[in-house]
Structure prediction request, 591 residues.
Amino acid sequence: MIFVIAEHNNGRPKPITNELLVAAQRVSREFGQPVTAIVLGENTAAVADDLKSRKIDRVIRIDDPNLAQYSPDTYVTALNGLLADEKPFLVIAGHTTQGYDFAPRLAVKLRRPLIAGMVDFEKHGDRLILTRQIFNAKMNMKTAVRGEAPYLATASPGAFPGDEVEGGGNAEVVSYAAQLEGPSTRKVVDRAEAQKGQADLSSAPIIISGGRGLKQKENFQVIFDLAQSIGGSVGASRPVVDAEWLPREYQIGSSGQTVSPRLYIAVGISGAIQHLVGMQTSRCIVAINKDAEAPIFKVAHYGIVDDLFKVLPALTKIFNDLKAGS
Amino acid sequence: MKIISCIKPVPDPASRLVINETKTWIKDQDLTFVASEADNYALEEALRLKEKHGGEVVVISMGGEEAARVLRSGLAMGADRAIHLFDEKFKGADEFAAAEALAEAIRKDGGADLILTGVQSDDLGTGMTGVMLAEFLGIGHATVVVGVEANPDAKTLRAKRELEGGMNETVELPVPALLTIQFGINQPRYASLKGIMAAKKKEMKVLAAADLGLADHQVGRAGAMYEVKEVLIPERKSRVEILTGTPEEAAAKLVEKLRKEAKVL
Ligand SMILES: Cc1cc2nc3c(=O)[nH]c(=O)nc-3n(C[C@H](O)[C@H](O)[C@H](O)COP(=O)(O)OP(=O)(O)OC[C@H]3O[C@@H](n4cnc5c(N)ncnc54)[C@H](O)[C@@H]3O)c2cc1C
Prediction:
């Protein structure tokens, strides 16, 4: 059995849940193990109903008032009991602020392997090999889990295409009663949207984004110059914002804005998965980076492998000349 | 308040990383090691909490000479003392084995009110070790923390977590607790010359596997839950067209492509 820990809100599975199901369905084909979706919450009927149409074997609902809001201790207690009863082969959660918040605790409790941030898998004989990214996506690491099942994995958002989830199923829905000791000791006291600034990039047609490769705040001027010459907006990767070169509202990626412009020019940005999920659906992506192996080139349509401080002024000049000439 | 801040030594981000002969890790013999970036944010947060509430900050790290080096930097930034887990047997530890060793060392040091780690390391980057450490110690935790409000009298603290989609969640949890600190929560200070001088006189306790009461099969590679099969540069299955030439030539080719081929300008 392969368990998928479904994430949901407002009675619907979140998009990551389909990605996890795709991962599970693929592993299922190789290892001949059926897929079960696990839904934890308070009133999970609607989510279970939605999920049962995927091509999976079962949906297990764990309904409990103490699971109404996600918390790591209640999740770990509930899942620990379920895993002891069901003995699955693999448990897949999202590498999300929920998944990586509870899965490591569960792994320690069970003393079983957890491979975090899985992007791919292989079958070697009957052994499961899981691949994850290391050094900010510069390299991949293939790992073989040790010992007996269950094995745990968190799947990187964006690594498995959620729209390829196989449907046409009519899975059995069953309920499981969790043995919780009471409410979580970690209480949610507030949930709010992080402060939003002026820069709404979600509908910008052209974005020039700068990263840590700019080296220091003053150098960001070359990004503004290029943006001005093309008539585009400015964006940034997270380290730029963390270092306070630009306000938080400029950040693009998993913890910033998600954008899909006609043209996205990534300058001095390596292409970590948290950045890619925020911009990879852009129609045309250009990467300017001096490192030919930077993962940003994997999603780019056009690339220039050179020093950005030489390339950007040259580009800006061309656009300014074009403007002057027209 | 006693705060323990965990620091992982990682290759200086400016280094060129080369995969080793056995393809199981990088060649790390000639590299310079620094504290993993997120751990700097964690230590800065620890120092600020101490400045506000009093107490002490202890830095802890596992590894060879490189760990001693990042601990000395932590002491120079302002930590009061250091614990160095130093033993050949710790080599090859995964997140699980590292967390178990750290947990034993922290227990041996009498525990702490608050334990901080970076949200994830610059090398493995999985964000697991801190959360595992909390489970080994049987204390609560919160991940991806962008704000901390301690309340030492009430024995609770509030942590603001950064969720996906621009949402934040504030949670309250009892202390002792462990928090994994997100990049950008503060602006880490640099060590002053005075700090560097003062660090030389601060205590650095060295602990080996035997001091922690851990058996050989629990530490290092033997204690790891997975085996590294291969480290590789992923194949670029991509559509990218690299434009070559001098910067001016490449720029001109790019503009041409964007206008005539991609038609996005
Ligand atoms: C929970 C969490 C959430 C996150 N959310 C986000 C997010 O929303 N958005 C985000 O962007 N990141 C996010 N990150 C961080 C992410 O993991 C990466 O660390 C970050 O994206 C790296 O930014 P970068 O590419 O600018 O820097 P680096 O990875 O340091 O890359 C700099 C690049 O610049 C190139 N370069 C350097 N000098 C030059 C030069 N002179 N000319 C040309 N190229 C040069 C280098 O080759 C390198 O590829 C998050 C991380 C975590 C843990």
Summary: Residues A 136, 211-213, 237-239, 251-256, 268-270, 272, 274-275, 278, 289-291, 294, 307-309; B 119-120, 144 surround flavin-adenine dinucleotide (CB under 6 Å). The longest strand of chain B covers residues 140-151.
